[in-house]
Amino acid sequence: MTYKEVAHTNGYEFTQGGGYELPTYPFVPPPEIGSGAPARHPIVIVGGGITGLTLACSLARLGVPAILIDEDDTVGVKGASSRGICYTQKSLEIFERLGIYEHIAAKGVQWSVGRTYAGHDEVYSFDLRQQGGYRLSQQPPFINIQQFYIEAFLVDRINALGHVQLRWRNRLTAFEQDEHGALLSIETPAGAYQVRAEHVIDATGSASPLRKWLQVPFDSKRGDDRWCIADVRFTTRPPQERHTWIEAPFNENRAVWQHLMGDDVWRIDYQMAPNADPAYVSREDVVRERLARQFGPEVEVEIVWVGPYAYRSECVHAMRHGRVFFMGDSAKVVSPFGARGGNTGVADADNLAWKLAAVMRGRAAPALLESYGDERLEAARENVRVTNRTARFLRPADGIERTYRNAAIALAKRHAFARPLINTGRMAVANPYTRSRACLYGEGSAAGQSVQNVAFAWADGREGRLNQLLDWAAGDLLLLCFGPLSRADRKRLAGLSATAPLRVVQVVGADDAAQCLEHVRDLKGALRDACQAAAGGWALVRPDAYLAAHGRAVNADLVQAIGLALGLTGVNA
Amino acid sequence: MITTPNWQDADTFYEQLLDAQADLSPEQIQAFSARLILLLANQMGDARVLADCIAAAREAL
User: Fold this and answer.
1) What is one Pfam family matched by this protein (chain B) (predicted)?
2) How high is the ipTM of this complex?
């Protein structure tokens, strides 16, 4: 049975404008074509968007072989290349580990101040740099950059690292699986071939064919809200700040978003009437008229890209179906407010990558892979819940929902208390994991929380940061021990690191004597803050910079936490 | 949630509430009520109490 009719794209239509120049990648005929038997590949990633490429790059970095197939030969989507734009601190930390952060920082735009208007009045503003949660990391709260740039940086990095083959213009046409493995049928310009795989990762996005073929159950909710994006470059008088309007006088009192991205391109995103015709609202003359209403008739713009969109929310009931792992938009679909689409796809990939790598290298039990579902399904559900609330605020039902929104806006203009009700998007965060089988939760424990990429000093005084420690740990668990260690502790730790995939680092103050282990100096206590650890305690940090557990003494809790973090069954019994 | 009398002056509040809406249209009354509920909710703050109050208001239907 084949399924050729399924399109693997998001189906943006009616695009206008000059567009972006996307890189194209050569089709290389796969070696399997012409050979009789299906080739074996332990890991096959389907889909080369930001999620699939992040996973591919993470595996490549850990030296784990895989192939990635993508039906296209470019990043972004042909003719519709403008997609995600806001990247969170957590994603930027992940990209730093993968070796592409410097490119992103150079091309993108850092921002931290946002202002929200209703009519001509400012109702709300925030500065993320003033918010405590962002201060410890070496990465800024957010960078805006066109998604395809990140994808292109990932492609270059994967090709440089090796281990993972990127196969462009390779289209999945059929799939089956049983207890022995998965069988994928793939079409290319040079002919068809089949591949057997142990693990298949579905990163095909919101129109996932695998989800359809496998009849994966999911919850779905469709709204009638309509939007139209205009990506524009101003040749005269560009806007100065990142603004959002809940009610814009120049857009019939509907919402408008205004963000700066790379290349001095502004994304102006207009909320449309619910019954708007997508073809009409994205016509170039109509878009120009709309821009003139906002910026004045004398302002000249170059239209880079225009596209209408609607959104829905969806969430699978389980992140794994046999040998198939769902990630990114193939697992859940959210409205774009708060940047919870692409960023959580990146986090999905980062979560699964180290677990797959540890299992493939024989350094963790296969049961560890089940924790991917525990952790990322909790994140997916939370992101769906948060974005649905935003969608409801931005497109209230007629009647009492609109009455309450008007009440909240009216009060927010005068009183600070009402400003938290104004919901133009709750910016994506590193989702905490509160119910994972791979974490050991104790009273008041920070287990399951993300650790920021904080700075410290290496033993020789040079500045280091957490990502470099994770890099050094090379996919193994990282145990940070804060403060002095007794002789007995050191002996136990030496035993543990000799038998488990575990790297132990002692963290000491400026003047403390280091003991016999690897050590770093936490001059400002930032590392301890980031791990939410007590003096004399330890923090078990996973390769995805999440805390598996923390504790006070080198004891049985630590042994149990290591076991859980490696998927050893029965440990938590 | 407090369900026993906690008023300092119930009659005065009741009179003020009615007076404030006496000359309003039905739409204005709805808007007034929404603003008042949001103001009062913030005075309470406690998420559990607010949830209990919403549930209690539904039960009276």
Assistant:
1) DUF2783
2) 0.96
